[in-house]
Amino acid sequence: MDNFFLDILSGFWQIIAVIFHALSPLMIGLVLAYLFNPAVEWVRLKIAGSPHEPLPQETPKGRSTAIFITYAAVLMILLLIIYAFVVLILGALPSGGIEETAANVYDYFESSFENITSFISQYADVSQFKSALADWIRDKFSFTGIIQFITTFAGSLISLFIGLVASIYLLKDKEFFLSLWQKFLSMILKQKVHGVTNEILGEINNVLTTFIKGALIDSLIVAFLSSLALSLVKVEYAVIIGIIGGLLNIIPYFGPFFGMVPAFLVALTTNGLGQAIIAVLALLGVQQIDSNYIYPKVVGSSTGLHPLFVLLSVSIFGYFGGIIGMLLAVPAAGIIQILIKKWAYR
Questions:
Q1: Higher model confidence: residue 195 or residue 135?
Q2: What is the pTM of this model?
């Protein structure tokens, strides 16, 4: 009986996973439309020359122009970030080029790995670990593994492109889709429940809007402080690394540590291990300032979550959704908290 129940649950979960995967482009479109909507509306108001009143509904060209300007600006920013990242990688290479850098990094990590395994082997058997690591590398870098990676990557790009197109349509005809959504809710819900649902959605929108604005401002501050700190300790390409660190800082708790990797690698390949450690310590100082002073003030209590619940949500969502899951963890946990409170005090 227990196995039957587990089989039913497993089958139901697989169906949900298939539906989620099939609708992922639409979900991407919804997320992009929600994120870009404030920028689109701001551009629309600037085009209209009215800082307060929204544009009339009869001006679709104004909205289309605002969407084009917003997406073009975002694309330019992404291209600049990619260009800066390429410059960072190529500029950090020594005169010998990629081959010499790869050889130096490989020798360094091989020596470090041998020292670590030699130390651990005094207390435990590491042969099984070496065997498992070799099997993992062989599997991931086999012909089948490479083809699987290319297929998955291409599928993700297609989903992203479809989601991007969907977001443009959602923004262009926003009022139509919102009215359609309200009609759908009124059809399936009673009037009282419909009102409560709109109230909950309003609270969720406030939480998400506050969180996104706060997180972006916090990232800008961290990017500036990281660039300044790395410049003071004479790390090359400090501004570019600082910007990358600021972007990764959007991921709570783990993001700052991801941002330390480029600083460590650039300092390691240009000036050795000593400066690499100093660079990491400088960014750790920035991270402490951000965690204890900036983040609580700027982002504040936008979600009202306890720090422990934030850490748990990032871990859980990151396990299931990777980097994207980490990005969505805090606002998603805030939404869950709103729903639980509404249910508990109904």
A1: 195
A2: 0.65
